[in-house]
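Example 325, ligand heme C.
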Amino acid sequence: MGTQVGWSASVVALMLMLVGAGRAVQDGASTPSRTDVPKTRGDCQTCHPNEARDWAESRHAAAWESETFAQTSRNRTLKMCLPCHAPEPILLKGFGEHPALRDQERTHGIDCISCHQDANGAYHGTLGTKTDAHATVKNEQFGTVDMCATCHEIFGTVDWYKQSEWGKDPNGCVNCHMPVVERPIATGDGLPARKARIHKFEGATPEMFQKGVKMSHERRDDHLQIKLESVWVGHTVPTGPEYVVVIVEARFLQGESEVGKHQTLLADNTAIDGNDTRLKPGERRVIRAPIPDGATEAIVRVLHKRNRDLPDEQARVLYEAKVGL
Ligand code: HEC
Ligand code: HEC
Ligand code: HEC
Ligand code: HEC
Ligand code: HEC
């Protein structure tokens, strides 16, 4: 066994390797420093470390390496599945056209170059900055729903968006998923703070879910009543391919032991039994879970699975609360 110092040094080395391979590393606890900036294709991180750190935590960075993507695409051999998960720059074909699959460094998933680079090697944005480092193009379409729709329209997310109360905002997706911060957008002396956007693309996280869906629960006679209200989600919960599901669960306890469990599936089952039980934008849903005899307490949880075949233990917990009965 190594010393404490040796051990942490090798953990850091391992993390750097993982980051170098383009994986999303959940590393909220440590303070960012120059040494933990993940490498991106095109070395953007040397001048744009904030965007690079944020992006490395995002699902876009994980789009190719994702375990659940591998499971559902026959280990990444189903040709029709691959392009959006490791695309050529979308500006090559233009917004609204499915991108082509790229040959190189697919492990980086949807990266800086995929979104920003055009056929001339210039980087598009809306800010109109000029730099010697590379060519930039001011593109008013950048960051619009039409840009995100290039890939996200396929699962109906954009159709639902257009029917929602946010549907008229041309920048609706980024206004919820890329919050604005004032900061310099590149390293270098004398660069001003600008209107920058966080690149974590947070979606199915506890923070986002709890901002988007108001939860409440109380005993009503022999039932536990669980209420969900979609207050700040511009599409269904969940959204995405039919593999992605959300489960609202109540586990009933008597002391330490479980005396019953009730689960409600929020999923697009149109192809299975004609039902779509996802929570619609603005919808209020009431779930009534019968309380088993002797139960003294309930644990209410909301689980998110990127592949419905995963066991509950591998689901992401978006919400959890204890209710005395
Ligand atoms: C050598 C440093 C350097 C590198 C490497 C670099 N950039 Fe930049 N970039 C800058 C500077 C400097 C600015 C302008 C900053 C300012 O004026 O506030 C900028 C601006 C931008 C903008 C803003 C465009 C706008 O005006 O809206 C985008 C987008 C961008 N870079 C993307 C990238 C991408 C993607 C990469 C990697 C493929 C990259 N950059 C690599 C230095 C760099
Ligand atoms: C090149 C295709 C493509 C483009 C363009 C694109 N996305 Fe994505 N996005 C994906 C894919 C693929 C995933 C799923 C990644 C995974 O989990 O494997 C995803 C996942 C997400 C997630 C989900 C995070 C989660 O927790 O599951 C959010 C939020 C998101 N994208 C927002 C956006 C926004 C906003 C835009 C427009 C600025 C955008 N995306 C543009 C392909 C794209
Ligand atoms: C899914 C698409 C997507 C990916 C991937 C992506 N960006 Fe962006 N980027 C955007 C959007 C959208 C904006 C904001 C446009 C607007 O509203 O001004 C933006 C803005 C920027 C800006 C302008 C300043 C700021 O921070 O908002 C820079 C610089 C930038 N991106 C660099 C990068 C770098 C570096 C990477 C990779 C580490 C990257 N982007 C990955 C979509 C993307
Ligand atoms: C009013 C805010 C809001 C708007 C507008 C919005 N979203 Fe979301 N989005 C959320 C919230 C909150 C969540 C987390 C709840 C959830 O898991 O669905 C989310 C989740 C997601 C997810 C992960 C879904 C899942 O279930 O795994 C994706 C992908 C996504 N959004 C893409 C988009 C795209 C693309 C647009 C634009 C067409 C968009 N969002 C517009 C608030 C918004
Ligand atoms: C047109 C672009 C596109 C194509 C083609 C595509 N996907 Fe995706 N995929 C996405 C987007 C966008 C998301 C994010 C959806 C969300 O969370 O709302 C996603 C998310 C997923 C997810 C959930 C996230 C994860 O990593 O587990 C799985 C699984 C998935 N796709 C599998 C597939 C399979 C299998 C195919 C082929 C049958 C496929 N995709 C084809 C764009 C695409």
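Summary: The CA atoms of residues 287 and 295 lie 18 Å apart.
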